[in-house]
Each structure stands twice: as structure tokens, then as C-alpha cells.
Amino acid sequence: MAEDFLGYGGKLDEEFVHAENPSVKTERFEKFEIRAAFEKPELLDGLVRLKTAMGEALFDKYINPVENVNLSGSSMLILAGQEKLRTALVSRWLPVIKAAFNVGNVRVVGGGRGGLDAY
Questions:
Q1: Residue 18 domain-assigned?
Q2: In the chain, at which end, N or C, are there fewer CB atoms within 10 A of the end residue's CB?
Q3: Cα(51)–Cα(53) distance, rounded to whole angstroms?
């Protein structure tokens, strides 16, 4: 019975089963900086200021993996997708993000992948 509770490698071993849908396709994940240039050009000035403040390597590590960013007035919402990334952004980079985008309120949401990364 104890073997039922043993994990292997700390990851879930379940296979995802889904119905075939020819309308759904998988695309390679692009860096947020590249996607923003096409989808959200209003963010580019702030992204340039943020990249300058953070440095290119840290920007690639912490900003480019985000799933989405929305800006409305003096508020910003960042969908980090991973809880580890959310924690790093909130604990280390929040003042820098606020200054780069000139916003007073930033909310960072993690666990966008069904919360599986929280385990």
C-alpha cells in the first residue's frame, strides 16, 4: 500500500488524455519581448526601460518567460505562468517594474498552467 504514495522524481506521472481536435495546434513559445512587438506595441517603451534597468541576462530570465502583460492606466497585471517566476518578480523586481512602466500598482499572477508547478 505504501507504494501508492511514492513519487518518482518529484513530478506527476499521469499522462494527459485528450480528444483529437484538428483545429488545435501546438506552437513554439516565443519570448515575451518578441510577442509584445507584434501584439502589444504600447508596452515596448517600458520593456526597453526595464531591460536597461535589469540587464539583458536577467531580463531574459525573468521577463521573457511571462505569458502575458496587461496595462490599464496606472495598473499592470502580469501572468507569470510559473509560481517560481511570480515569486521572483514580486520579491525582487516589483519596484523596478513599477518604475519602468510608471505604474503604481502591479499584480503578478502565477500558476497559470493549472497550478501544477506549485507542487
A1: no
A2: N
A3: 5
